[in-house]
Amino acid sequence: MSAEHVSPQSAHHDPVDDADLDPRSPVPERPGPLGMVGNAVRGALIGMAELVPGVSGGTVALVTGVYPRLLDSGAHIVDGIRSAALGPDRKKRTAAAFRHVDWWLLLPMAVGMFAMVFTVAGVMKGFVEGQPEISRALFLGMVAASIAVPLGMARATPGGRTWLLALFFLGGVAFAFGLSGLPSGTIDDPSYLLVFVAAAVAICALVLPGVSGSYLLLAMGLYAPTMGAVDERNLAYLGVFAFGALVGISLFVKVLDRLLEDFRKPTLLVMAGLMLGSLRALWPWQTEEADILAPGSDWPVVLAAVVGGVVIVVVVLALERAFQSKAATTDASDPATT
Fold first, then answer.
1. Are 133 and 57 contacting, i.e. CB atoms less than 8 angstroms apart?
2. Is the whole model's pTM more than 0.85, yes or no?
3. Residue 53: Cβ-neighbour burial (10 angstroms; 0-12, 13-18, 19+)
């Protein structure tokens, strides 16, 4: 699994700017076979996270080190589509945008993500609904440990007033805490218009750490119908959902990419706050209306699940650092890269 180096500085630039139009401008390089497999595994992990209410796929992307490249590639795709329909030099600017998309990252990740979603949707639904305390505890540990990632990136980014940055962080906490306390139900026969709108909103969580797309679907009453449609291969439902997701992410990814470029540190702190606030949704003991309960007699098993979740994230982070060090060593010893 090849590593992605997360620079403390902004890794983004305006898609299809004048530098991109230069055919000599650097483009994403093709990784080796191990790197391709690693990207597929990352996609599978993100896909699994998107199936779990309370866990964000964006959080997994941050932990596995691919978040900046994913966001940048998404912005280039959106800008390429826009350039194909509007503006001058359509052909040239569209080709430049798509040339700078990291397809070697996106395509293997997409394969891993869809394979995981269609393989374990029914199993994950059964685990979440059949073992609610243990499943929430496991994911609670994972998300809690993952908060260190955006905080570390923010710490490595210079600038910002302490009191203002604290407000951004607390604002993220408050928003996610309130959102995760919304009661949820199930809509047995949702209209396609509702499915479209829900998908457009929920997909934004794919690129926003701390906000769970599955939890948004749960709050809107569409988690069970959507998981059922995946498990039963309901192509009409899934087609409407996919179209809504495409529209939603096209509108949102450019905004987030710009925020990370121009307001990197505050945006990272808002992400960390969202992740911290979302832990409310993962408190193991709660009612179906999301009311918090006191710990039950099963607390030793639940605590073990929390620790297990923390260990999983720590291991993933350690592996990513090891891969980064190995990749940096390889690049330094390769005359073609120096």
1. no
2. no
3. buried
